[in-house]
Amino acid sequence: MGPVELPAWLQPRYRKNAYLFIYYLIQFCGHSWIFTNMTVRFFSFGKDSVVDTFYAIGLVMRLCQSVSLLELLHIYVGIESDHLLPRLLQLTERIIILFVVITSQEEVQEKYVVCVLFIFWNLLDMVRYTYSMLSVIGISYAVLTWLSQTLWMPIYPLCVLAEAFAIYQSLPYFESFGTYSTKLPFDLSIYFPYVLKIYLMMLFIGMYFTYSHLYSERRDILRVFPIKKKKM
């Protein structure tokens, strides 16, 4: 008797694609909910909704960004075919800004820059996860492929500028409250505003590296286009 062929749903490739599809779907639903919530609140309450953006959707935003750390594991074990360092830089930017800068300072949570930053992040992620989700099941649309490889070009630098501005606005509060600043043995101390200022410079260095990688990736993907397309 020849070897027994496993059912399609038991094959490793099928299980991997099913897992990725569910992961991308969950992320898409989360970011879509955030973006829709922000849009409805803005048209309902106007500028008043901007001030309490973090209080309304901050929990879901933190949940989505925390789950996105799984993408580093995906790349490390080979589930996703991507470069680890660029993705690490992108995720580190968001985690530091969201959890360290914004979440730790209530005064920063009420700034307009938080609303702007969340809009940029969710625009990018809704398109990216839609493209990734459909790609896993072998569906591709020319417009979506082009959009996923192009939208980041103007928005990603704006994200970095907004992140830098959020850090700048948070500095007085870190200086006043001494958050994360601590004394070490031997008369040494960590003054956290200095750490943020150093990170502020590194943020733009990381942006250059990430932008170069994304541009190279865009060139390679669009070069092999057209790819298999399913009629809409």
TrEMBL record:
Pathway terms, separated by semicolons: Lipid metabolism; fatty acid biosynthesis
Function as written in the Swiss-Prot or TrEMBL entry: Catalyzes the third of the four reactions of the long-chain fatty acids elongation cycle. This endoplasmic reticulum-bound enzymatic process, allows the addition of two carbons to the chain of long- and very long-chain fatty acids/VLCFAs per cycle. This enzyme catalyzes the dehydration of the 3-hydroxyacyl-CoA intermediate into trans-2,3-enoyl-CoA, within each cycle of fatty acid elongation. Thereby, it participates to the production of VLCFAs of different chain lengths that are involved in multiple biological processes as precursors of membrane lipids and lipid mediators.
Bilayer-crossing regions: 20-43, 129-147, 154-171, 191-211
Protein name, UniProt field: Very-long-chain (3R)-3-hydroxyacyl-CoA dehydratase
Catalytic activity: (3R)-hydroxyhexadecanoyl-CoA = (2E)-hexadecenoyl-CoA + H2O; a very-long-chain (3R)-3-hydroxyacyl-CoA = a very-long-chain (2E)-enoyl-CoA + H2O
Keywords on record: Endoplasmic reticulum, Fatty acid biosynthesis, Fatty acid metabolism, Lipid biosynthesis, Lipid metabolism, Lyase, Membrane, Transmembrane, Transmembrane helix
Family: Belongs to the very long-chain fatty acids dehydratase HACD family.
Organism: Eschrichtius robustus
Location within or outside the cell: Endoplasmic reticulum membrane; Membrane
Gene Ontology CC terms: endoplasmic reticulum membrane
Membrane topology: Multi-pass membrane protein
GO BP: fatty acid elongation; sphingolipid biosynthetic process; very long-chain fatty acid biosynthetic process
EC number, UniProt record: 4.2.1.134
Main location: endoplasmic reticulum
UniProt superkingdom: Eukaryota
Record GO terms (molecular function): very-long-chain (3R)-3-hydroxyacyl-CoA dehydratase activity
